[in-house]
Write a structure and sequence with these properties.
alpha+beta, Beta-Lactamase, six-stranded antiparallel sheet, 11 helices, PPM-type_phosphatase-like_dom
Length: about 425
């Protein structure tokens, strides 16, 4: 989150007097003085610094590796990655001190920001800017060299600096090395920012996908019970969104049309097709009387309007509770389970090609009769896999129903490899 910036110019009356010192700006406070190149530059760089959301973050190995490396190269006891905010310097990484920040007035690094160049202090006791600095007396700092952390926007966020407790010199070659290492720090900051942006984008996409998954589930018919039958469902996406779906629609008072669909594939591209297929079935139901003709029309519409190489399987059914008949037609979902009351379940195999692949397909309508107490289970391949992993044909006629009910009761805990959908219909 980007911190709201209060410009330093607005704060000057509260924190001290502003004076111009030979091209630099100076603010005198009760703790000392704050220096900067100009108010305009200061506000620009503070805006970018806060936009990076790096202040007060936890230590990160990418930055700690740099300070360790630099301390070894220059053989110094202290190395810092220092970021200069409005009123303090904060250390993103440090070697040789337990401090994680100081007031800005005591910061050697603020002079790098103000002078917009690398600053080298060979002996702090000989430099009037620092000889009275509390860090010189308290920490024994005698040598300082700080290179700019210069962004692509031209803002100086802070420094990569080295500190020693004895005076020393820095050669021109060593100066170049320090500046190159400061560029490494900036690269790590930019990489961190890019990774954070990508993480935010991923989280936003994940939230959208989660919302889409909830919407998919909300579009499904709820389980219900009527005078004719009990209707229950099992719906488990293998990912957040699903290529499976189902639908019921009453046709008059005593007929119920329904279908179950499994779009080939997984994930978002597959899930995006479910709404279009739902429309295809609705349109076909308005124009066709025969269940077989309806399935043929859905295939025809699918070839015209669905994206290329998007195929789907389906199973359509029509219950007539007055005549006690079930009409059904298969398009790639080539089976269903039927348990007659008092008998073992029967696994019906039904031929029929998947939809969206071949034109001019004719889907056959089949029919069987049912009576009170019968149970039907229509399902996609995912539930078939569950059945195969937990065999039900062991002579106990209730196992299939128990498996469905157990799966429905524990579906939040189930881990499936494929989108899993099953419809359980018990005749009353």
């Amino acid at each position: 989150m980007v911190k709201r910036i209060i410009t330093l110019s607005a704060c000057i009356p509260e924190i001290g007097k502003l004076v111009n010192l030979g091209g630099k700006m100076k603010i005198q406070t009760d703790k000392g003085c704050i220096v900067m190149s100009s108010l305009e530059n200061e506000n620009k760089r503070l805006t970018e610094l806060h936009s990076l959301s790096i202040l007060d973050t936890k230590p990160e190995e990418n930055f700690d590796r740099i300070t360790r490396h630099v301390a070894r190269i220059f053989d110094v006891p202290i190395c810092l990655i220092s970021l200069i905010s409005e009123d303090r310097q904060w250390f993103k990484s440090c070697v040789g001190t337990t401090l994680n920040e100081t007031e800005r007035e005591a910061a050697f690094c603020q002079y790098v920001v103000a002078e917009q160049r690398t600053v080298v202090v060979e002996d702090t006791l000989e430099d009037p800017r620092f000889c009275q600095n509390r860090l010189v007396s308290e920490m024994g700092i005698r040598f300082y060299a700080g290179a700019r952390l210069l962004t692509k926007e031209g803002n100086i966020l802070g420094t990569l600096c080295i500190i020693d407790t004895k005076p020393r010199e820095l050669s021109s070659k060593e100066l170049v090395i320090l500046e190159e290492l400061a560029s490494w720090v900036i690269s790590e900051i930019e990489l961190r920012q890019e990774m954070n942006k990508r993480q935010e984008q991923r989280e936003a996409i994940e939230k959208q996908i989660e919302w889409a998954g909830r919407l998919q589930a909300q579009l499904l018919p709820v389980d219900f019970e009527s005078q004719h039958a009990l209707f229950k469902s099992l719906y488990i996406p293998s990912e957040v969104v699903s290529g499976d779906f189902y639908h019921y629609k009453w046709v008059g008072k005593d007929k119920l049309f329904g279908y179950i669909v499994d779009v080939m594939g997984h994930g978002i591209p597959t899930a995006l097709q479910t709404s279009a297929i739902r429309v295809l079935f609705s349109q076909a139901l308005e124009t066709e009387n025969s269940l077989g003709d309806l399935m043929s029309k859905v295939n025809e519409f699918g070839l015209l309007f669905m994206p290329e190489k998007i195929y789907f399987t389906s199973f359509g059914f029509m219950f007539d509770f007055t005549k006690q008949t079930l009409k059904y037609s298969s398009a790639g979902i080539n089976h269903f389970y039927h348990k007659v009351s008092g008998s073992a379940p029967v696994h019906h195999k039904v031929p029929g090609a998947m939809m969206g692949m071949f034109p001019d397909l004719s889907y056959k309508e089949r029919q069987l009769t049912f009576k009170k107490g019968d149970v039907f289970i229509f399902c996609t391949d995912g539930f078939s896999d569950v059945v195969q992993e937990r065999p039900v044909w062991d002579g106990n006629e209730s196992n299939l129903i128990q498996l469905f009910r157990a799966s429905q009761n524990t579906f939040h805990q189930l881990s499936v490899k494929d989108d899993t959908t099953a419809l359980f219909i018990e005749i009353r």
